[in-house]
Amino acid sequence: MDKLLYIILGGAATLLVLVLGSALVSRVFVSRYKRKLIKTISKESLPSFSREQITSLPAPVQRYLLHVISENHPAIRYAVLEQRATFRHGPERPWFRVKAREIISGMEPGWVWDAVLIHKGGIRRTAKLSYVQGEAHGHIKFLGAFTTQELHGPETDTSMLFRLLSEVVWIPTAFLPTKTLRWEPIDDATAKAVITDGPTRVSAMFHFNQDNEIERITTSDKYRDHKSGFEQASFTMVCSSYKEFDGVKIPTQVDFIWNLETGDFDYGHFTITSARYHYA
Question: Cα–Cα distance between 259 and 64 in angstroms, integer?
């Protein structure tokens, strides 16, 4: 009996060491890429937002920017977002909860996402994702200890660069044209954005409503996990519930939808609970 007890205690101790060690590795991952991201953000003096900066943009983009930020608002270097969400992996799969914090650059393309995924019964996974200096990296761990998925490679780079492009709705001064971002007019309610970062290029259609808000974003430049591989598919992000944080109006509710041949698959509902903007 004593021997069995020692074996059980030894196994429990080993599991605890693995959990704590992996949690430390995850924290190091997040800290490393946060520092790396902040270092990439230029310290050059930036002009405040003005009408003169947007005269070359498509008309609906101009109206949107004038609606969500006021003239003379300082350019945003980066934002820190607190997020809550529900997700599911398939139409018949259960929903799970997500709590996350994200840092997203308003200048050079980049973001870092630190999340906890909470499943039925309180079972948890952690997700640490980043896109910094043209490369996406990340992992998902069961109980924060056992890696279930590593994320990297060209498909991940493409999907994560699109994620950045779509998430500039939360940092709107990043809509201004740069060496990586350009806009193409489509019609009075639609504009196309193209972002190029090194060898990776993605585009998306931005659809605006009569209130001069972005109503939805659509693209085919995104990949979904499918049967242990990647499958390129059409995607829609629906934006709603605009609220103001520090003088910036942003959608606080976004819904993620895969537009598949078999029909639309609604797989994520995302809420912004806090947005802090950094200008210096």
Answer: 26
**What is the value of pTM for the model shown?**
0.86
Q: Write the CATH number for 149.
A: 2.50.20.10
Give the whole-angstrom CA distance, residue 137 versus residue 238.
26
Is the residue at 122 inside a domain?
A: yes
Domain assignment of residue 144, yes or no: yes
Query: How many C-beta neighbours within 10 Å does residue 210 have?
Result: 7
At residue 182, the 3 state secondary structure works out as: strand
Looking at the predicted structure, is the pLDDT value of residue 171 above 50?
yes
Q: Tell me which residue range forms the domain holding 91.
A: 2-43+55-278
Q: 84: part of which helix (H) or strand (E)?
A: strand 78-87
Q: What is the pLDDT of residues 210-241, one digit of tens each?
A: 999 999 999 999 988 765 567 889 999 999 99
Question: Nearest Cα to 79, choosing from 174, 149, 190?
Answer: 174
The string of pLDDT tens digits covering residues 22-38 is 455 555 656 776 777 77
